[in-house]
Amino acid sequence: MGKSNLIRRSVTGLFSLSSLLPSFAGNVQDERPNILFILSDDHTSQSWGIYGGILADYAYNPNIRRLASEGTVLENCFCTNSLSAPSRASILTGMYSHRNGLYTLADTFDTTLPTIATVLRDNGYATALMGKWHLKSQPQGFDEYSIFYDQGEYRDPTFIDSKDPWPGDRPFGERVRGFSTDIVTDKAIEWIKGQGGEKPFLMCCHFKATHEPYDYPIRMAGLYDGVTFPEPHNLLDRGPETNGRSFEGQTLEELSRRWTEASKDPDKWWCRYPGLPFSVDGLHPTEARRRAYQKLVKDYMRCGATIDDNIGRLLNTLDEMGIADNTIVIYVSDQGYFLGEHGFFDKRMFYEEAARMPFVIRYPGKVKSGARNKDLILNVDFAPLLAEYAGVEMPLAQGRSFASNLKGETPDDWRKSFYYRYWTTHDVRPSHMAIRTDRYKLIFYYGARLGMTDSDDVNFTPSWDLYDLKNDPYEDCNVYGDKSYAPVVKKLKEEMIKLRKETGDTDESSAEMQQILSEYYWK
């Protein structure tokens, strides 16, 4: 089947409105924009089709392309901790993990913190959340919510509704028949249509897709039949000995193992994988990895196509209601994902594929159409942006609004570098902190648990990676040991210290971390 045919187929209350604005009555309030914030899980930029790459021609993306043509695409948007729950907490609060307290998947979000939802609701917005929450505590700031229990299920998911008592960490709720991405969209559309127009609204429509196990509805089952996807050039990267990196990473062999075991007993795992049985028995390791890659991408792209379908339904709803011109639409993923690059799957590590957040925004008259912005934008900037558009302030936020950037008026003092930290640690994916500029990326793998939840005590010798993104955009060669880069390393380490102080992440209270820094930072 040709590529063209594939595409054609198928703290709350801190601010009140009166305290922020001298007058906000009558028709002025009605003119504030509605906000439709669509968030997916792990829907990486390599698969969106609008960011180029080897999969661009295969992406089923008419509605993402529509948003891109009618709005602005961010070229360099990043999360500050490449993990679902921590990234979501930063999106809500505008704060880094060490400030909002949600470091790992096992942490619980502090309900007393101000979020964009609490601030907007306290200032006259109708607010709702449908779909994936994943922050353990009860959602705050939403007039209504209907959220998945825990990670959620793709098929016949269980929903916890705001009208019912909060069940805590128990699987109580209503099981709804159907496919999760479609159901979440149904709920979002029903709520939007139920708004009378007296108030502007914030609708947070959060999909489980494209998270593992990358499932898809029956209507997508034939998409990509007979297709062999092109491979990333570093698919057969076999580890530190290949590119000199400081960690092993989670490879496709682990995904093959999960599929193989699930083929024997589907109920053994926390999720049900589509397209089983699967086996690589008897294959050479190279062919086994290639087979795993083809299955991963085929499942994943079908799952992503379902998101695009439902974005189209949401956009059509705004058009039919006549409110598209005064509704901000954002589609973004909570982080990126490896699709075979370096032989990996999953996220977490500070490589481009995992840390980059694909992001598109449409706001007629306020955001340029068909534009692309190259500024360094972070997930901690989202809440301040939406607050500015709504005419309010975002308390405690560490990020800053990029509304001017979206008009093509980047402030002179806009960031030229940013700080990243991944707090969870396991043997193949150690905890690390990093800095990125427009050209360089410096990563310090310290590998210590530091009391974090969902982590292991590992025996790891702290080490460094440096990537020159101009000469090595795919991060194939760690040049930290190259003496010609010594001046660059020194400058980046000084900049990292500066950013750690600015963000308030200095580890001053951790004797263990201070010892690690003392012994290895300037090594």
Report on this structure.
- This protein is α/β, with parallel strands linked by helices and 523 residues long.
- The protein has helices at 3-8, 17-20, 27-30, 62-70, 84-93, 97-100, 116-122, 180-193, 240-243, 252-264, 285-321, 352-355, 382-390, 403-406, 486-503, 511-520, and strands spanning 34-40, 72-78, 126-131, 144-148, 158-161, 174-175, 201-206, 327-333, 338-339, 345-346, 359-362, 371-378, 417-422, 432-437, 440-445, 463-468.
- The strands form three sheets. A ten-stranded mixed sheet has the order 6-5-4-3-7-1-8-11-2-12, with helices on both faces. Strands 13-14-15-16 form a four-stranded antiparallel sheet, with helices on one face.
- The longest helix is centred in the middle third of the chain and has 37 residues, at 285-321.
- The chain is globular, with a radius of gyration of 23 Å.
- The protein starts with a helix and ends with a helix.
- Residues 1-29 have low confidence and may be disordered.
User: What is the rounded distance between the termini?
Assistant: 54 Å
| Count of alpha and pi helical runs | 16
The amount of helix comes to 25-40%
Overall number of strands: 16
Structural class, by secondary structure, is alpha/beta
Low-confidence stretches: 1-29
Overall form = globular
The order of strands across the largest sheet is 6-5-4-3-7-1-8-11-2-12
